[in-house]
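Protein in question passed on here:
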Amino acid sequence: MASHPWSRAARMLGKRTKLADPIPKWKIVTGDIVQVIQGPKTEIGKSGKVLRVDRKQNRLYIEGVLEHTRRIRNEETNQTALVQSPAPVHYSNVALLDPKDGLPCKVKTQVIDGERVRYSTRTLSKIPKPHWERRDGISPLTYKDTPLDTSAEVVARETYRPSVLTLEESVLREMRRAAGLPE
């Protein structure tokens, strides 16, 4: 009953989640190893792999850091199970670990030979981007074509026909060809 201004439903209508100011250039991506440098005292100094990045709220989900317990119910058997899952940590509370010595560092980016490279400002060592894995587990580097896959040559031959005609001219040419008229 949102019609009554004193009801809980009416109070909840007024609360909208405000999106955080987005960070323009993210230097931490999924798969990086980071360390918590600010936040709860029990979590400071812990490090882990970034599982997920929420760019709308400027939050990171880190493996083994700030975990909370959730109760999940199985609807078929009506049994519950306790599951550990990471809680979000703000982007400013973590630092990327330097691959050379394993200590937290500040990161700068620079374009070298047309490629953007991340490097540590303390040791000037390059920080490689982690290999990105798809959710379905298929890796483009290790994927092997099967007989059911269409080869790239066939796709290019059948779908791409370069032409200098405008759209109207190409449509008229196709209509003439379909009607059996000369071009």
The two ends are 70 Å apart (CA to CA). The longest helix spans residues 167-179. The helical segments are 8-14, 152-159, 167-179.
